[in-house]
Amino acid sequence: MAQPSAAAGVLGGLGKLTELRQRLVFVFLALVVYRLGTYIPVPGVNPDEMVKLMQSQPGIVQMFNLFSGGALERLSVFALNVFPYITASIIVQLMGQIYPPWQALKKEGESGRRKLTQYSRIGTVFLAVVQAAGISTALQGQLGASGGLYITGPAFVINAVIALTAGTMFLMWLGEQITERGVGNGISLLIFAGIVSSLPSGVIATFTAVADGIVFPVLVLIVVVVLTTMFVVFMERGQRRITVNYARRQGGRSAYMNQASHLPLKINMAGVIPAIFASSLIMFPAMLTTWFGSSQQAGWLQTLTQALSPGEPLHMVLFSVLIIGFAFFYTALVFNSQETADNLKKSGALVPGIRPGKATAEYIDGVLTRLTLIGALYLVAVCLLPEIMTTFVQSPVPFGGTSLLIVVVVVMDFIAQIQAHLMSHQYEGLLKKANLKGGPRGGFARG
Description:
Helix content is 74%, strand content 5%. By secondary structure, it is mainly alpha-helical. The chain has a 3-stranded antiparallel sheet. A hairpin with a 2-residue loop joins strand 2 and strand 3.
């Protein structure tokens, strides 16, 4: 009877965490709104004809449809998902590194960050309009002749551009609200929800394949998924700890002798961002190439479409280069070696055998460069190798390493943030108890 009572105590304690419960409820309701929106079609489109068209498209379009949670297949108002926002954020961050006025904005703190965020939103509108115009124009050539559009001509293009742009802006706002009022990164959670929404159909396809006697490829797929998940968890938790010694310090009547600590550097500091950035930059142009090449019967576009399909050498090379480049770029954004070295010097800390200041910054930068290279190669392996293996064994169930990486990393980050909320609540409770117990006994309380 002790175990049920302990479990009840834990649940009761969780029930008292009003703020965390409200945040989790907000995330759940926001994801429900997102999933409902993926079923609202763009005006003037026949959903049945759109589904038939999507079933005849190559893998790159299917991958985009997977990331959008099936919204592209139904051409809903959320068909573009948050990818215009991601692309705009990439451009703004790149310009923030090379454009002097925006470099100055980055140094202004919170006010500068708000201006750069506003630029990202303006860029999102522009990219969403361009991409929506491209999709609507391509679909007129695909669905117009077969009667898949109730509205044709400029009226359909205008309706589609307005609906798709509004959907993208709403998702951008919803992602920001999840980040601010919920738990975890809102944009990552929206992509996560889109990928996970296809999980039931994947499970059904797996059981169907087993029932049809296709056992060996399915077993290989399951083994690859499990091993890849374990590898992702292992690498995401991997760290390189740099030993840091603190000099002797005088505190009151006692002196503190040399103390040793560690500066932890993650193997993959960029997380899942490089994979998302690379996917957003390579999927949409390939998708437009697919539709325009099929509608216009242009030979060179069809050749380019085939070369950009998953599993093709050109796609693999471009995807790998983008992942490695974004891994180094984003790591440089989130970690400043010179600033870290300056902070260590100010606190009286030093790395054994390394002089404080510039030498320490160069040493940390060298270690971080090697770690980032290992992390980038790990991301490339996780994103590409499972797809190659499942293609090699001809598995009847599609499986993408990029989608699995996003799901695992987002879940790990979500759990970590929940644990952080729980830990902060425990500290707040301890502080309140300490104040209540120490208040009446303290001299200030009586004086």
